[in-house]
Design goal:
mainly alpha, two-stranded antiparallel ribbon, 67% helix, 124 residues
Length: 124
């Protein structure tokens, strides 16, 4: 059961680590690709949600107290992305809260869910 969640757990750690890196440690080519970070956010959170949906489904966890686990996962990931943005703003040098990052994360979660549902869920 837990082995199905290992990719999701590892990707979660990856996302958290990237989120707490100080802003001055990112490459300086940022200016040329200023808005590309929104695509990176969407990609990271699409992968994160996809892996959690897939891992939980493969583990046989589909409901938690009669609530669809996909709703719980989506809301949990979105809340944690907001928490990471707040942590960046107050505790990580040269990083700040960006509502557009949160929006990109939400779009990524939707992409992850849609990908999971149309590509994988129908085969499980």
């Amino acid at each position: 059961m837990i082995r199905n969640l290992i990719p999701a757990l590892l990707w979660s750690v990856f996302v958290i680590l990237l989120s707490i890196v100080p802003g001055n440690e990112f490459p300086q080519f940022q200016d040329k690709f200023k808005d590309m970070d929104k695509f990176a956010h969407a990609f990271m959170y699409a992968g994160l949600s996809f892996l959690w949906f897939y891992g939980l489904r493969r583990s046989g966890i589909t409901k938690l107290k009669k609530v669809n686990i996909d709703i719980i996962v989506s809301i949990s990931i979105l809340i944690s992305s907001i928490a990471l943005e707040i942590i960046q703003h107050f505790y990580i040098p040269n990083r700040h809260f960006d509502m557009f990052d949160v929006a990109a994360n939400g779009i990524g979660i939707l992409i992850g869910f849609t990908s999971f549902y149309f590509v994988i869920y129908r085969r499980i």
